[in-house]
């Protein structure tokens, strides 16, 4: 868990970075973000509100539901950024096919962000434009793989592909 001030600064960096790309932004947060405090600076919040639309839910709300609804309602090209892996939402889904469809949707819409090691800037890994499963065309197979086995989160998929062609 990051401290409140660190979260605020990362949000500020993310909004500035995405605003430079002329992306239309909606930031979902909680009402406590509007209070001037050691963690949330009112003047910087106003600056961010000039670059993005904001929706503030109640402080005790489950804001993930707002995130999912806003993303789905905004259309198929909408992307979202969160550090949440949405595991609780997947666990609530009734069957494995629905969970698989949710993971596929998540991989195609979630932009993963991570601060740099020194904390000076943030990096974004874009959402996938393709499904990361074995794909075939005629006599050619494309197989996603990783060099080493490691524990992964649902949005982390192999970025290397093995191309096999039958001769």
Automatic annotation (TrEMBL):
Gene3D superfamilies: 3.40.50.11980. GO terms for molecular function: metal ion binding; ribonuclease P activity. Residues 10-163 form the PRORP domain. It is found in: Mitochondrion. The keyword Oxidoreductase does not apply. One of its GO terms (biological process) is tRNA 5'-leader removal. It holds the Pfam family PRORP. It comes from the Eukaryota. This is MRPP3 ribonuclease. Its main location: mitochondrion. Keywords: Hydrolase, Metal-binding, Mitochondrion, Transit peptide, Zinc. CDD domains: PIN_PRORP (cd18718). Belongs to the PPR family. P subfamily. GO terms for cellular component: mitochondrial ribonuclease P complex.
């Amino acid at each position: 868990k990051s401290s409140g001030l660190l979260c605020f600064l990362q949000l500020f960096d993310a909004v500035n970075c995405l605003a430079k790309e002329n992306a239309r932004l909606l930031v979902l947060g909680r009402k406590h973000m509007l209070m001037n405090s050691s963690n949330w600076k009112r003047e910087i919040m106003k600056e961010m509100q000039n670059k993005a639309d904001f929706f503030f839910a109640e402080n005790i709300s489950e804001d993930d539901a707002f995130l999912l609804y806003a993303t789905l309602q905004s259309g198929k090209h909408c992307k979202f950024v969160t550090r949440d892996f949405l595991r609780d939402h997947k666990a609530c889904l009734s069957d494995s096919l629905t969970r698989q469809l949710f993971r596929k949707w998540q991989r195609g819409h979630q932009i993963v962000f991570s601060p740099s090691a020194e904390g000076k800037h943030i990096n974004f890994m874009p959402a996938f434009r393709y499904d990361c499963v074995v794909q075939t065309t005629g006599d050619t197979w494309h197989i996603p793989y990783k060099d080493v086995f490691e524990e992964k989160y649902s949005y982390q998929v192999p970025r290397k592909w093995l191309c096999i062609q039958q001769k």
